[in-house]
Write a structure and sequence with these properties.
The chain is an alpha/beta fold. The protein is 46% helix and 11% strand. It has 2 domains: 4-15 and 102-226, HAD superfamily/HAD-like (Rossmann fold, 3-Layer(aba) Sandwich); 19-96, Transcription Termination Factor Rho, Rna-binding Domain, Chain A, Domain 1 (Orthogonal Bundle). The radius of gyration is 18 Å and the shape is globular. Belongs to the HAD-like hydrolase superfamily. MasA/MtnC family.
Length: 229
């Protein structure tokens, strides 16, 4: 039986438009001020040094690092440091009530059903763990973070790498064949399946005719007890 479900956020639990039209512009508008105002104190100075290491430029100025981050944003680069910085900025937005985290209406009821069935639920997203926690604790459905057993970001590896899913399995202590991954991205699901996981692809928009994964249009359609392990 399935013992743990790991779900993506963008396009899976959450409308992609919330991420691209609310979160990304909010962080971009505040990025330069946030970094310049905090460059000599934690956590900003630590993050800036991590970015210098990431781009192999130990002497890079704050202005150069800001330009690098804008470039990463334009490229949709899955930079762990960028995601961490965005997460800190988004935290202020959630706490100040500037926005709440969007969740599709089918997500929380399904999570409650799975939790009642003693299935652990985890999040795995390229966004930082801190930003994931804020979305689920300040969501349109209220604070639903208590339904979740843990969070993973790219510190365990990229989402299209097979090793990332093996790392998550080891960290949760659940054998790979009892893990179920939910995502809208076929390539992520391919990597999870290659690692030994079960998979379901969320189709919130246009069908993916090239996919060989089980497909569902909402969390209502996902019945982990019916998935053979």
């Amino acid at each position: 039986m399935i013992r743990a479900i790991v779900t993506d956020i963008e396009g899976t639990t959450t409308d992609i438009r919330f991420v691209h039209n609310v979160l990304f512009p909010y962080a971009r508008e505040r990025l330069a001020h946030y970094l310049r105002a905090g460059e000599h104190r934690e956590p900003v100075n630590v993050l800036l040094n991590e970015l210098r290491g990431e781009i192999h430029a130990p002497a890079a100025s704050v202005d150069e690092l800001i330009e690098t981050l804008y470039k990463f944003m334009d490229e949709d680069r899955k930079s762990t440091t960028l995601k961490a910085i965005q997460g800190h900025i988004w935290r202020e937005g959630y706490v100040n009530g500037d926005f709440t985290g969007h969740l599709y209406p089918d997500v929380v009821p399904a999570m409650r059903r799975w939790s009642d069935a003693d299935i652990d639920i985890y999040i795995y997203s390229s966004g930082s763990v801190s930003s994931q926690k804020m979305l689920f604790s300040h969501s349109t459905e209220g604070d639903v973070s208590g339904l979740l057993s843990g969070f993973f970001d790219t510190h365990v590896g990229a989402k299209r790498q097979v090793s990332s899913y093996r790392n998550i399995s080891m960290k949760t202590g659940v054998p790979v064949h009892q893990m179920l991954f939910l995502s809208d991205i076929r390539e992520e699901l391919d990597a999870a399946r290659e690692s030994g996981w079960k998979t379901v692809q969320l189709i919130r928009g246009e069908p993916d005719t090239q996919s060989t994964h089980r497909q569902a249009t909402s969390f209502d359609d996902i019945h982990p007890e019916q998935i053979p392990t």
